[in-house]
Amino acid sequence: MPHDHHDDDHPHSLLPPEPALRVKALETLLIEKGLVDPAALDEIIETYSHKIGPRNGARVVARAWSDPAFKKALLEDATKVVAELGFFGRQGEHVVAVENTNAVHNMIVCTLCSCYPWPLLGIPPGWYKSDAYRARAVREPRKVLAEFGVHLSDETAVRVWDSTAEIRYLVIPERPDGTDDLDEGALLELVTRDSMIGTGLAKTP
Amino acid sequence: MKDLPDPVFSEPWHAHIFAMTVHLSEAKLFTWPDWADAFSQTLRRYGLTKTLDGGNDYYLAWLETLEGFLKGHGVSPEKVEEVRQAWETAYLTTPHGTPVRLPRSGPRARL
Fold first, then answer.
1. For residue B1, which residues of chain A lie inside 8 Å, CB to CB?
2. Which of A50, A132, A186, B32 would staple A91 via disulfide (CB 3.0–4.6 Å)?
3. A14 vs A136, A151, B58, B99, CA distance in Å?
4. How far apart are CA A28 and CA A38, in angstroms?
5. Interchain CB distance below 8 Å, B80 and A114
6. How high does pLDDT run on average in chain B?
7. Catalytic residue flag (residue A130)
8. Residue B96 is nearest to which of A11, A21, A53, comparing CB atoms?
């Protein structure tokens, strides 16, 4: 029997949760007032759900690994370099790239809310927005990294960058050993989202 | 921490509230730094009574912050509640499988 004939079981439409109805109410009011364009909302949702994600950041990292001049420019002025690749911050924020090496491991957090390099990494994962990560990343970064499976030697310093509404960070992870003969396209596959937050390392081939 | 929720948007309303906020900021209703300031204050307040997991509770704090911002733009809590109630009624009175719409008369017509 077709699903929509089960009217006895579902006499009315499924009621969304209470906050969803509040959001619908806000949207209705804002559209009525001409403050919100439904087509623009659809475009933003589509963009962040499907078009923007960590693959953008991975392209930047893979290029930095392959092209020393590009990496130098990226470390000097990431905002300009990523904008030239078409990755603009919608809020006009600046991007700063920080490079992981043997000597220093960088990781990013937003202790206040969840500022994140959206154009390069998309919407942050749930754990990035959690109290546990936001509170502990600064206080005990090595412990947090260990929970992510990243164990650093005592010789490696850990530097935690606290993002703001104005400045978002991108970690350039260390290029894995044994990748000298890989081209940019192959390197791209080794760059994970977490490695660009600093809570992971790039994959090995 | 790695096991906490990890999709782009785990609920459709998370995507909608996010998009509305980005859109309103781009329309210069408020600046993103002002938004981040207010939102971080809400998160701090929420975090006093429970440990936020970065999922639904994060967007509840987001919703409350946006509602607060919009009070100054003629979107009062009373109006929001009135239209929320109208949506609830619409869902409860629309047969399953039929698109849910607000009635032409009712709260929406009086906005």
1. 127, 130, 132-133, 144, 147-148
2. B32
3. 40, 47, 24, 11
4. 10
5. no
6. 86
7. no
8. A11
Residue A46: give the domain boundaries: 16-51
pLDDT band with cut points at 50, 70 and 90 for residue B1: low
C-beta atoms surrounding A136 within 10 Å = 16
Of A183-187, A190-194, B20-24, B46-50, the least confident:
B46-50
Q: Same domain, yes or no, for A20 and A78? A: no
**Same-domain check for residues A62 and A26:** no
CB atoms under 10 Å from CB of A139, counted, come to 10
Q: What is the pLDDT of residues B23-65, one digit of tens each?
A: 999 999 999 999 999 999 999 998 888 888 888 899 999 999 9
The answer to whether residue A136 scores a pLDDT higher than 60 is yes
pLDDT for B98 equals 85
Look at the alpha carbons of A65, A66, A68, A69 in this order and tell me if their dihedral is positive or negative.
negative
Closest CA to A203 of A69, A68, A58: A58
- Number of domains forming the structure of chain A: 2
Catalytic residue among A13, A110, A130, A153: A110
For residue A194, what are its two tokens?
A: 């977490």
The alpha-carbon gap from A17 to the nearest alpha carbon of chain B, in Å, equals 9
Among residues A13, A49, A66, A115, the one annotated as catalytic is A115
The mean pLDDT value of chain A amounts to 91
For residues A67 and A42, membership in a common domain is answered with no
Q: How confident is the model at residue A89 (pLDDT cuts 50, 70, 90)?
A: confident
Residue A203 has a pLDDT of: 97
Q: Is A115 a catalytic residue?
A: yes
A112/A63 same-domain check: yes
Same domain, A170 and A84: yes
Selected residue with higher pLDDT from A155 and A113: A155
Query: Mind telling me how many Å the CA of A9 is from chain B's nearest CA?
Result: 10
- Residue A56 belongs to what H/E stretch? helix A54-66
